[in-house]
Design a protein that fits this description.
7-stranded mixed beta sheet; ATP-binding; alpha/beta; 4-stranded antiparallel beta sheet; 34% helix; 11 strands; 19% strand
């Protein structure tokens, strides 16, 4: 898909912190992120649970106000007044992972999809707009679904209703948080194909939040790998997922069935956003540091004590890793046993 060079959405230095209770340290859920999403582009935001990706996604929509940094949409900084956010959310819509939780069980499909139109005071033909959104989401003929309730639909149909509820406002950006995580494998491909078709037909941009690298391969133009509040590797999806440079990306890929070699078992505790370590934030669990590769490359001390800069939000391939920067990209992937990985999915 060809995209324009100017980003539709741009994030600069974004930070989101949550004060701890009863004197506990502040949790830095998003701790310095730059990210651009161009028109017509699908970006996958990938990482383990707890890495901050959902907080980042919600902050992009104004649902969680940032502690620092800024979000720019279509060239204008995002304002946080009720009126400004209402206008913005007509152009940028959220699709949640659990369609059962997203839909009111007492509302018909028609009312669920029409809700956004009513909130925003849609001046046109409501019935035609709802029918058009359902049809674009793959529920045809749409009138057959108007009076159904969520419990009368399959999981895939419910997710299509959620997507139709977002599409009915004709947004320019979708933020999809684990959009197929709760669906059966047989339905996942249909929903991913739907998102790709919507991008082609409507020119939609999308940020897809996922822990599934196979999903990222199948849907995204670009991938951003997040760990402990920061993006640690980013670039074109083919490049990042076939020749990963960051040890964390390599570990995530190593557990896929298609990956060569043995899975990488990460040591140490899962990430804690209230206790971000000095140096590389991944170093306590890093298989490269634990295995002596960083020491042999002369960067072990830097890994433990020298912080890495925030990766800029553009589309170039970047990595925040002292070790990866000491050697060519092909050698970096090969050293970790993940070079020329079979494309996931």
């Amino acid at each position: 898909m060809t995209t324009t060079t100017s980003p539709l959405l741009s994030v600069e230095g974004l930070r989101v912190a949550f004060p701890g209770r009863h004197g506990a340290p502040t949790a830095r859920a998003v701790d310095g992120v730059d990210l651009d999403i161009r028109r017509g582009e699908i970006v996958a935001l990938v990482g383990e649970s707890g890495c901050g990706k959902t907080t980042l996604a919600r902050s992009l929509l104004g649902l969680v106000p940032p502690t620092a940094g800024r979000v720019t949409f279509d060239g204008a900084p995002l304002a946080y007044s009720s009126r400004a956010l209402k206008a913005y959310r007509k152009r940028a819509q959220l699709v949640l992972q659990d369609p059962s939780g997203s839909l009111n069980p007492r509302h018909t499909v028609y009312d669920a999809v029409a809700e956004g139109l009513r909130i925003h005071g849609h001046p046109g033909d409501e019935r035609a707009a709802v029918a058009g959104a359902l049809a674009r989401a793959g529920l045809r003929p749409p009138e057959r679904f108007f009076l159904r309730y969520p419990h009368e639909l399959s999981g895939g149909q419910r997710q299509r209703v959620v997507i139709a509820g977002a599409l009915v406002l004709e947004p320019e950006l979708l933020v999809a948080d684990e959009p197929v995580a709760s669906l059966d494998a047989s339905v996942r491909g249909e929903i991913l194909a739907l998102l790709l078709r919507l991008r082609t037909e409507l020119g939609l941009s999308a940020l897809v939040v996922t822990h599934d690298l196979g999903l990222a391969w199948n849907i995204a133009d670009r991938v951003a790998v997040m760990y402990l509040g920061r993006i640690v590797e980013t670039g074109a999806v083919e490049q990042v997922l076939t020749a990963p440079r960051h040890p964390y990306t390599q570990a995530l890929l190593s557990v896929l069935p298609e990956a060569p070699g043995a899975p990488v078992v990460l040591t140490g505790e899962p990430p804690d956003p209230s206790r971000i370590p000095a140096g590389c934030r991944f170093h306590a669990r890093c298989q490269i540091l634990a295995g002596g590769e960083a020491e042999r490359a002369g960067v072990a001390d830097a890994c433990r004590g020298q912080d890495l800069e925030i990766l800029h939000g553009g589309g170039t391939n970047q990595v925040a890793c002292h070790w990866a920067r000491t050697r060519p990209q092909e050698e970096t992937a090969a050293k970790a046993g993940t070079g020329a990985a079979v494309p996931p999915g």
